[in-house]
Amino acid sequence: MTLAGRIALVTGASSGIGAAAAEALAGEGATVALVARRADRLESLVNQIEERGGKAIGLPGDVTDEKVAQGVVSETLGRFGRLDILVNSAGIIDSGGVESTDTARYRRVLDINLMASLYTSRAVIAPMRAQGRGDIINISSVAGRRAAVLFNAYSASKFALTGMTEALRQEVGRHGIRVCIIEPGATTTEVSAGIADPNYRKFISEHVSKEGAMKPEDVAAAILLVVCLPQRANVSQLLIRPTIDTAPT
Q1: Catalytic: 200?
Q2: For residue 200, what pLDDT is reported?
């Protein structure tokens, strides 16, 4: 199914799953608005998409600021007159267990992984309801199903995102708005770069780059599956993990 004529807004679009999602959506004909803090990365991705015949704009900003989140939604609507797909991909991993955590860093994880998705999702509901349709996709993690001491802040944010997403689906489905949470397992991205603890950073880096780990474009393919289904069908939760992640022998 072509996405020609649809307008998509992707957060966390400067790298990883967000960048792959933007490229995949544009490749299927959608016009994509790209949001992230790193303006230079966004400019490069916009140029890359346009060189391939796609349409894209970059909207630099930090969506943990509610006014910025509302602003990028408003600007997208102002430029294109509608907004059909929202992909909340902005996210970080940081902080270990509770006893040793820096609570400011813990709060930052919650702000990026949960609150930013809340802000953008809230901002798109009214225009999507007016259209009678729309897709909101939140990128979570296997850690949103399985907590561990090393993932306390991350798991807390992703468990909360799952609850928020499911409640939102029940809230807006009657208006033709589909809501989905996608939970990737190990995916090779830059996610470990911002982790403060060097041992924890090394562990996560090795985990996401292990042999057989998924690539961001694999998750992007799952996003296309979700948005290309007939309007009557809503994939509400999708767990996707490397084939090698099987039960230990």
Answers
A1: no
A2: 80
